[in-house]
Amino acid sequence: MKILDSIISLLKLAAGGICVFFTGLLCGLNPKNELKYRKGCSRFLTSLIARDIIIEGKIDPEAKLLIGNHTSNLDIALMETVIPEKLIWVAKKELGEIPVIKYMLTKTDMILVDRSDKRSVLKMLREIKDRTNRGFKVVLFPEGTRNKINPKKMIKWKNGAKAVAEKLNLKVQPFVIINLPFAFKQKPFRIEKQTIKIIFLPSFNPNEHPNWFEETKAKMQEVLDKEYSS
After folding, report:
1. Which pLDDT value is given to residue 97?
2. Rounded to 10 degrees, what is the CA torsion of 194, 20, 149, 90?
3. Each residue of 133-176: pLDDT tens digit?
4. For the chain, which residues make up each domain, given as ranges?
5. 6-45 b/e with 16+ CB inside 10 Å = b?
6. What was the pLDDT predicted at 1?
7. Assuming Cys at both sites, which of 91, 121, 122, 197 could form a disulfide with 54, CB separation 3.0 to 4.6 Å?
């Protein structure tokens, strides 16, 4: 039975990869409809791992910067599924070099950054300012990468999100993703759908809270600890 589950799961993974490939292709061919393509692919990818999605808290329409814990490569698909509006993602420049997939970034107002290049970081700030001025929400994962050993604990935050929020004076709303990484089981590999929860915490203006960066990380970890201990 486990072997059959593994085979089915691998087929689902392949279907997800095909979905992403064709979404990138469509975004390149017809960028005007990129939002429809992105949302459709995200809903399909999320359906592979979510039995149900529970949302706690409300999204602040005035918040321009969303920051959350990074749990999986499918965090993006999940957020794109639950938030109907267009979201702007900041990605490492290497992703913009992948054939076809790059169109989902370069043709859709997404922002690519080379973290080792200070000029690229300054360019990122200008682009984020442009997107937020146009009414879009930008989403960042302050960790930069996910904790592959223990997704219940966040790793050290990078200072990029802090600089973005403070230099551009963007209203921030944190969110916490629960259970998503546990959809992927190992030995043998298989996908088991989870009840996934997204908790939106109260938004705030960073310039009114000098220690917001450290305090927000602590509050988000408290939420993780509470959710996983229940």
Report:
1. 81
2. -110
3. 999 999 999 998 889 899 999 999 998 899 999 999 999 999 99
4. 54-182+196-229
5. beebeebeeebeebbeebbbbbbeebeebbebbbbbbebb
6. 64
7. 197
